[in-house]
Amino acid sequence: IEPSNKYMFKHKGAYFVQDITTAEYIDSLEDFEIRDSDVFVATFPKSGTVWVQNILSLIYHEGHRDGTENIDLMDRVPWLEYNLRNVDYVNRPSPRLFATHLLHNLVPSDLRNRTGKVIYVARNPKDVVVSYFHFSNFIVKLETISDFNVFLEKFLAGKVVWSSWLDHIEGWFTHRDDFNILFLTFEEMKKDLRGAVLKICKFLGKQLTEKELDTVVENASFDNMKRDVRANYENIPETSLQEQGKGYFLRKGTIGDWKNTMTVAQSERFDSVFKGKIQELPFKFIWDINEDLECGFQLE
After folding, report:
1. Annotated catalytic, 61?
2. Based on CB atoms within 10 Å of each CB, which residue in 98, 117, 206, 283 is the most buried?
3. 8-125+160-246: what CATH class?
4. Exactly one of 101, 104, 134, 168 is catalytic; which is it?
5. Where are the domains of the chain?
6. By the 8 A CB rule, do 44 and 100 touch?
7. What residue ranges carry the coiled-coil annotation (predicted)?
């Protein structure tokens, strides 16, 4: 059963949020000219997008890092496929920073020819589906589904905005040689944020002093991001994002929270659909906050 077109529309095999982008705009991105200095955060929803947006902003913008500029994340690192503020992306000064949930084959062709840089962040999908469930129930533009079991089945079938988690991550990873790309996991960032920031800086060719690095790590901690109105999307009227009083854009930001929502039967149902396919991917997630950090993308 196809989802209601009140909340989303399907284009080229992917579902998009209704009313804030169009099929024509998505198609136009194929020819969007990419610069060598452009940096993209690519994710499936609820995998750590805002976190890495914030880290990029802190690395590149001294005014954000030292607190002298009150510019929110939507202006620092806007969404490629959802130009919510009608910004002139073409003439935006370098380095341009973007976020995207697009499938690998829908991003600009220049990006698929290794122009610019991509940081792809993945998260264990049980935490993704639980976080996405809570997220969809307070975001105005998404369909409210109060029954987690119903949402879980939609997620497993890829009948949610941005479609299938597995197709998304598999597509980006399988086609990694087409991109100048760094893969990270939410879990390794959670376990070793400083190490992740250093990895990002090395990939970007950015040299920070020890003091600057300390400031980035401190400001990028989940608790500080949640308190920072510039970083958490809580007060951005243009997006018409959340219904007041129903939830928080940044909720828990932890590993293993799926256990507080999923029943044993739901976890087993999830495993029956995804687990075998996940094991075929060349990286390992951790599923509990107490597991040792042995996750990450193992490239041959």
Report:
1. no
2. 98
3. alpha beta
4. 101
5. 8-125+160-246
6. no
7. none
